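Just curious: can you write a single protein's sequence together with how it folds?
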Amino acid sequence: MNIFRKATLWILPSLFRIALVLLAISTALTLVFGTPEKLKDTLNESGVYSSFVDGVIKENAKNNQDEGSVPLNQPEVQSAIKSSFNPDLLKQSTEKVIDGSYAWLDGKTTEPTFAVDLNNAKQQLANGLGDYAMQRVANLPVCNTPAQLQQFQNGNIDPFTMTCRPPGLNLASEKQKFIREFMGNKEFLSDTNVTAQDLPKTSSGEPIAQAYQNAPETYQWAKRAPLILGALALLMAIGIFFLAETRQKGIRLLGMSFLTTGVFLAIATLIIWFLFKQANEPGGRLAEFATSSIQTTFIGILGSLYEALNRILIIFAGSYVVVGAILLLIQKLRSKSLARGAQSDPLAVAAAAPIAAKQNESNNNNGNQKPKQVTVEKTITKTVEKPAESQGPTTAPLVPEETPEDLEKTEEELAAEQNTENLKQKDEQETGIKPGDTITPTTPKQ
């Protein structure tokens, strides 16, 4: 049994520390990714909705050199795009995708279900670009030379590159023509109604819901992980406390486990945070990977999510350290209290008195001196009480009840009392004197 207890106490604290670390990590992941609201708040705080359109414009403006295309490098065109695809529209569209994905993960639907309608945004952009284009054409001078009019012989008019306008040009008609052509352009938002079927597919062409069929079940079990790990950690803590040799050792083991786990978690979190910060700085690995504005935006999103996880892990680390310090302080104060109680306990003093008396007697006697002989006459008086006659049935002798003071005695106090009783019994066996005996010393005859 002792071997089993020692082996368990050797393994259990290590498992308890692992459970505490996993509890912190699983709780942080659940708080950040367990509900769509937290993910929405994180994305909103990251500023991705305000910077995403700028990133797309800058990325596409580098390759926007084709004739007849919309000049993305012109401020008026960029203003029209930002006005049509404003941060509010991006936020609403993204949150629809998030809600539909979480409904699938929670088992409410068999696949991600959402629908984002961007037709109105594209129409607004076409109108804005049409207004700007016709305003630019209206400010151009009228073409008055054959060379200038030759560019319009095929009937194609590019309002963004033309240097003069043909005589008698109907601007309203040209605007409607431009809007129709822009809305029919398949290179930009060919499908303005985005659904789950438009999500990226695997390399084999499978939809996400089909390729990751076990994702909902895994996600639901991951959400239960904090409760499971918390219950396991509690059972381990109870086992450590009761399997320890004393309550003092049990409290100390728990305190050291909490303290060391908190310190380890804090150091690990800070190291990872430092490495992520270094990699995200200019010239770092993440900065080298982010070759486009869009990639930079997504790295910023990952950074915001990591910061949310990091804050929760730091809170757990600090809590573990505080709990461990409190347990160790309780154990130390309890030890001092028991030590003071043992010094002032009269039972402990009475238990030590016979030992001190024997030691003094041994020191006073030498090898050449004979000890005085003492004859002890024992008079043992036994008192037999005659039980009173009664007509009723005999009753068992009364057993003294335990007082509240006896119930509140600690293990150390009970051990001291037992030690005192053992010493008394040992003295009785060595001297043959029992309580109630009459001792008459006599001097031996010369």
User: Anything to note?
Assistant: The chain has 16 helices and two strands.
